[in-house]
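@channel sequence for tomorrow's demo:
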Amino acid sequence: YSMHGDCLHLFPIGKNVAIAECCIWGSGLVCRAAGTNPEFFAVQNFAKPRVTRLRGPGLAFKPSAMVPIPAELSSNRKLQLLLASPRGPIHVISHAEPLEITATRDERAFNEPFLRMALSPSGRYLATVNSTGTLTVMESDFSATISEFITRHSRPPLDVAWCGEDSVLLYWEQILIMVGPFGAYVAFKYPQTAPGALRLHTQVDGCQVITSEKCELLRRVPEPNVAIFTADSKDPAALLFAASRAYKHGDITADLCIRQIKQQSSKDSNGQLRLQDAVQDCLEAALHTFNKEAQTALLTAASYGKLFCDDPDGYISDMFVERCRWVRILHNIRQPEVGIPLTFSQFEDLSLEVLVDRLVHRHQHLLSLRICDLMQLKSNKQAVLEHWACARIRSSNTDDYKVLGREIIAKLKVSPGISFGKIAETAFNQGLKELATMVLEHEPRANDQVSLLLNMEQEERALRKAVESRDADLIMSVVLHMLKRLPGQSAAEAPEDPEKNPDGAAAQTQFFKVLEQYPQVLRHLVAYYEGFGLDPIKSAGRNATMALKRIYYELKKKKVAAKIKVIESYYKPEWKQRIRMLENAQELYKTSDPFASAATKTQARLLQIQRKCEIDFKVSFVDLSINQTLAKLIKYGHTDRASRLRKEFQVPEKRFCHIQVKTLAKEQDWSGLAALASTRRAPSIGYEPFIEACIENKAITEAVKYISKLSYSNEKMEWFCSIHCYGEAAEVAHADRNLDALRQISSRAKTKPIVKARIDDMIKELTGR
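structure tokens (generated this afternoon):
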């Protein structure tokens, strides 16, 4: 529960478990189940409660005392539970194997059972009281015994608690005994307190004694206060305090006290260190003091003393300002209307940020805000304002949400960058949807803004904010959320019949209207589905294809819808289905893209011809391109069919000739290739494609035939050299009486000595040598 009675967490300890005993510390608890062989359960973090079961000692006994050691105080950084057994030993249980401790390491045996146990704030020491009334203080890991104190009480104390780390408190009816580390003790009487009406609560520097009438704090007097307020003290801080009071009354002894503080010594030649220590001690004493008049006097003394300090770097002045701020904070939180009487040691242990958080949860928002401004805590200030706004919404009784919204926005504008998301969520949970929308308009973080708008079922506004943020991932998250809310739970399913589901049809219409308003959203959605592939054999591809068709049909985008049809047609196993889908695509293309319409029509015709060729020749043709179809017809000797197909699809003559050359050469049909080359005086594509096809298929002899038919000598020589026919190249050069060409051919024919010798003879013949 919170301090205001709100249930924060509700969690079961176990199934059908009756709780017999429970120990609670700051952030968790340990409990013992009832029974002869009890079980133990632990929750180590109330913020995220997770119940874990501890391994018990395996013995049937009811522990006479039980103390948990939190993980942060344990020697092994794991939660430990100390159980005192009626036989004397102490059992240590945790998530590991349980241990039985019968004596400390300094051989102090546990002969009597322990009836009370208490752990010191640091977790270092353990105080125990046995059945004979002996108080024993030992190390919490049982390594040594620190001290023993015989109380001479036949009954065990009602409560045992530590007073800081300095002493142990034992409470019986109407009497409280404080036992020090060396056996000294002090008794405090509470004659008007009913039995069991007094509670002890350990603090880091003392112990709170809580009765039905008042709350007292027992603690060791801080050293600076002892040094200053002890009678006839000669401590520098006491002299500075006396000097300040004398100066206030115009007494000349003020100067004598300052001189006495600054008297020379071997370690401090001019007394500056003693004076600085005196100023610091006065400031520390003011922080430890609860009395307002004493605080004022101590701060005045510190202010008076720093006037005589050499402070070139401003250290003393900065420390004075900081300590004064701390005194101001402590004074304000100690007021009855706040009710947090912290000592300075507790304040240091708690930290300023945690103190602000506690004030916020007590709804002390104004004080928290002033502390944040005083100490320049920007992040904490935003948290304070955010909590105040949420609390203001929960406690508001006004029906005019605009007035409340303007009030909250005006207050929160003093802290730039503050998040309005949680405030809007609180308003939405309180049923103030208009207020949530109004506040959310000022949220600087698009992710938080969009997420809450989706929770508020304002998809169109969320999509607009996502588009304004230009975050592709955020846009897609909104679109997919909107798709899930459509009937069928997916964009991959066909729209429902409006007569069967009018509400669903209206939702679909509204969704597609939104897509029309944001073209960039449509592009993101199309890219998302295309990323799955459009293979209808796979489930993801099939759903993506159906989703894209649905989107394009609804938005009347015929061109892209036809594109999807064409892609989808190629995944159909039967050619009739493919032709039918291509014809549908052609109709869609007619008004949007005439060229694509003609191409689709041509493709459908090619598919029909390929199917007829398969029936006639018993060879597969479907799914081949026009070039591949022509090549296959030529390969199987159906040149006439190929020529008719060329004319019907207007394939250029040169391309058709290239296809014939490559196909005949690949099939080693050299006679057919020769016939093609001799159909005219010279082929329209020249003889080079013939030569290349022959060389590619390693028919050098055939290539020589076509090289000889080339018109230019330079081309002949280059082709002959490329196939290492240097003799033939030399013959061409010799016929042209080209000495430069002969010399170049001779240099390239080094690997063929006989041919090179013949070429050299040709060179000599031409040069006359």
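heads up for whoever presents: Residues 73 and 123 are 5 Å apart (CA to CA).
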